[in-house]
Amino acid sequence: MPFLSRDWRSPGDQWVRTSEGWERLKLWRIKIFERMNENILARLLRLAVSEYDDTWHKHQPHIHYIKGISKERKVMTSLSEAFVHLDMTGAVRDIRRFNYVKKLMFLLLTRNFRYLSGTSQKNIINILEEMTNQVLKTDTNVPAMKALLNCAVNTLTDGQYSHIGSECLWNKHRATVSKTVAKLEKYQLKQRHCDGKPTLDDLPEDCLRCIFRKLSNHSDIIHTGQTNQTNHTVSSHMLLWKQLCFFHFTDQQLLVFLPQELEINEDRVNWRYIYRRCYKYTSSFGRQTSFHLRFGMKDIFADHLAICCHCDTLFWQSIGHPCFSDSELKSRPLSPEAFLDLFVL
């Protein structure tokens, strides 16, 4: 009987048919690349970039949320699955979603980190690493990232003997966070080169007032006001602090201190003092004085998670999700606290 299969001693070459006849595939590819010019290569690059952009815009991170178990389904949606399907690691690369993920990580580290599963703990540590890399790359949110890493260090230290899971995994988390902290401590602010473009000092006071009104964090206003005399004058304007008070605090919260201020000074209210009293308070114990939040600041997120009212799908509000319902899209926004309440932690 003849041997019909491929001979192991000679696997042979692949051939391709061209207008000139049959040629070996290896030689044909080499000829094709040799004949390419810059125009053809540029066209191929444009096509590749356009296809990549199309696939990126079509990608919508989402996950179907399963509320409870039934006879047909015995599995609930876990936190680790939500992190993977919602692309939390990639969300930190978007400046709009960075603050939301940061708040989410802070709540997990201060509340339930030691009681989470090993997979969820590894996801959180990976997100912290990616956040640090993004901060070093963009030179933004450096103080907030340092505070978050310090919170992670304290959580890992306090839960060393009361955590769930293996001790080896916990020590690995501590080593990873320590390495991340050391990487962030080496960060040095890069000075802007003299490129001839206008800076903040070149702007008139009217433009500076508009910029200061867009800042929601009082620390940014205070630190910017310490740079020069003009910024200090703009940052000390009472109208700016009045708008900040009405933005972060409710009327009931402001009425706690506003009548006292009106009794002292009826003509002019010190809104900066009212903001400080509403934001925090001091407590003394012996010679030690500590600061505590009274009302805190309002959380502001440019993008947030939401849950669809038709299909119970968790998704990012700015990206959307593929909903099976033909009716008008209706969703409920989720704060970081509301998102964590959906899961059994």
From TrEMBL:
It comes from the Eukaryota. Keywords: Nucleus, Ubl conjugation pathway. SUPFAM superfamilies: F-box domain. The keyword Nucleus applies. One of its GO terms (biological process) is protein ubiquitination. GO terms for cellular component: cytoplasm; nucleus; SCF ubiquitin ligase complex. Its main location: nucleus. InterPro entries: F-box-like_dom_sf, FBX25/32. The keyword Zinc does not apply. It is found in: Nucleus. Pathway: Protein modification; protein ubiquitination. This is F-box only protein 25. It comes from Magallana gigas. The lineage of its organism: Eukaryota, Metazoa, Spiralia, Lophotrochozoa, Mollusca.
